Amino acid sequence: MPKTTKQKRNGAATHSSPYASKPKASNNIFKMNTDIGQHVLKNPGVAQAIVDKADLKQSDIVLEVGPGSGNLTVKILEKAKKVIAVELDPRMAAEVTKRVQGKPEAKRLEVLLGDVIKIDLPYFDVCISNTPYQISSPLTFKLLSLPHPPRLSILTFQAEFASRLVALPSSPLYSRLSVNAQMYAHVTHILKIGRSNFKPPPQVDSSVVRLVTKNPRPGIKFEEWDAMLRICFGRKNRTLRAGWLGGRKVLEWVEGCWRGWCALNDISVDEGEGMDVEQPSGQGNGREVNEDEWDGIMDVDDVGDNNYPNPQEEVDDDNDDELPDLFKQAREASTMNGTSGKRKKKGKVFELVREKVRKVLEDDTGLADRRARTLDQNDFLRLLLAFNKEGIHFG
User: Which residues pair with 344 in a beta bridge?
Assistant: First the structure.
C-alpha cells in the first residue's frame, strides 16, 4: 500500500512552488514625507565623504539637522565627541535613536525634536546637514547669526541654491544671498551629489557647500546691511540710481530711517513747505495704482539685456529679489484706503533726503550708474558707510 504524502511543516512544500507568493518582509520602512524635505542619503560613500570634508576633531560637538534614519549620524559619531541631532519628524527621531541603542555611542547622541529654525540651539562647534530644501536660506543665516556661530558648516543644498551661495559679481546667479553669505563666511563648493543617491530621489541634484565663519565678524549690523541690499537687489539689473531715486516709496522709507536717527541724536527736523505731487489714481481692482512708480520695482531682469536669464526662470528660494515687505504693505494699504488718487505734499525733509541719497550715489561713491549684480562686497561697504555718514541708518 503506497504511503500517504504528509505536508511538511512551515509550509515548505507550498513555498517550493514557483507560483507560491513570497512572505512579506516584516521590516518595511515607513513612507517618507517629502513635503518636509525627507530625502534620506543612502550612499555610504557619499556620507563618508561629507564627514571627511568636515575635518572633525575628537573634541567637536556636531549639530546635525535632519538626521533621517541615521546614515550620516553614525559616521559623525565615529569622529566627534558628541552629536546633537535636530529632527522634526518623531518617526525619524525614533529611527536614529534605534541606530545606536545599546551601543556606547548612544551616550554621545542627543536628539532634539522640533523645528531647527524655531528652537534655541545649544552650543556646538560644527554643523553638518542634509538640509531640507524648504529651509535652506533660513538655516544658513540662522547659523551665521548665532551669538557663537559654528567654526564651519557642511551643508547639502539644492544644486542651484548652492551655486547662488558661491556666485561672484556679474554672474547670472549673483544675488543678495551671495553677498550676505560671503560677507559673514568663506563659502566654497566641495561636492556634487546626484539625485539617485537619495531615497526617495528628489527632482533635482544636490551640492555640498562648506561655510567657514569669519572670525572676527564684520563690524556691521546685519539688519542694516541686509535692508540696504534689499533695495539694491530689488532691481539688481538696473542702475542704483533707478533703484533708489526712481520710486517715492523707497525715498519715503529712507526718510523715515533718517528721521529716526535724528530723533535718537536730538537733532531738530525743519519740516518746512514743499511741492505738491500728483499721484495717479487707482481704478477697478486696484492693479493700476501707481503703476509708473512701481513699474519694474520687483523685476530683476534689465530690458534688452540678453546676457542674463529671465528672472521668471530663476529659482528664488529666499525671495532675495523682492523689496522689503513694508513697501508692498504700503502699496496695498493705499489701494484699500483709496488714498492713491489724492495729492501728496513733498516737504523739505523729503527733498533733503533725496539730495542726500543722490549725493551718496553720485558724489561720494560714484556708484549711481552701476548695477547691483556687478558690485562686490567692498562696493556695498563703501555705499553703507557713505549712507551712515549722511545720517542714514537702515533697519
Answer: 277
